[in-house]
Structures are given as C-alpha cells and as structure tokens.
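Request: How about a record?
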Amino acid sequence: MGINMFDILGPVTVGPSSSHTAGAVRIGLACRTIIGEDIKWAKITFYGSFADTYRGHGTDKAIIGGLLGFNTDNVKVRESLHLAQFRGLEYTIETAEDPRFHP
C-alpha cells in the first residue's frame, strides 16, 4: 500500500490548525462514539499548548463540534459553540497546568 498525499499533508479541516483544530474535532468525535449517544453535558479541561492557544486555534469550537458529531471538514465547526445551545449540549471549558499532560 502506497503513501497517499493526504497522509503527509494531514486531514482536510476547517482550520486553522491540523493538530489543534482537526485533532480536537477527532477527540470530540471519539468521545461521542464511546458514549454512543448525544452528549448533554461536558466539562473540558485544556492543558499545555491547547490551554495556551485554544481560542486562537479554535480548539474550543473544534472539540464541541466533534461532540456534536461534526467531521473535521464540516464548516459548522466554526459555529459549534452557538449550535451547541440549540442541540442541548451544555459545556464548561477551563484550562489547567499539569506537567504530566501534553497537550
């Protein structure tokens, strides 16, 4: 099996960051998959580089978008904080420092 160009470039994403945006969407989707149903409440704590840059990189929007079931390329990720309200998802976002966690 050969290497696909997209294996090198990273996922198609609404951006701006493949790690801090697409990665966070995938984390949210993984949580949704594990739980197996619509998520009604989430407490999100960002550590390390996520804590330092989550607003600028859209990590907050991305993880909520994933919890709502959006994929990395769905433009609705950009509006996910607003859409969460209409979908019945309550959440809190906080930052913390802990050297054991990166990001």
Observations:
- Residues 16-95 form one domain.
